Amino acid sequence: MKLRLNENSVRLRFRRSDVLSLSNHGSVSQTLRFPAGQPLTFRAVAASVPQPQVIFDGGTVEVRVPAEQARAWYTADTVGIYGRHEGVEVLLEKDFRRSSVPSPDDEDRYPNPRREALDSRARL
Question: Higher-confidence residue: 5 or 118?
């Protein structure tokens, strides 16, 4: 899972295994340890909320997602789950394979729709 922060948004990108963990176990998390040892944890949690929410507390960015959406996301064709919480845009998205250079963890990423479109055009 990757975390991307912008002025008014929090975006989490999920590999297949991350989406499976969120769907089956109700959560997925990662922790980055900075050189001085301080951790930054980011996690997604299936919760009883009406729409995605984001909370920052004590070095942890927690994104809460409606539990039903979290459970269904693994088998759904939808790319993401989106919402807005107290002025912050919240985006949870499936991570696609790169369309140019392969990456070592491509097998755990979703097929890139752009790449598939390019491949099908090349076959014509």
Answer: 5
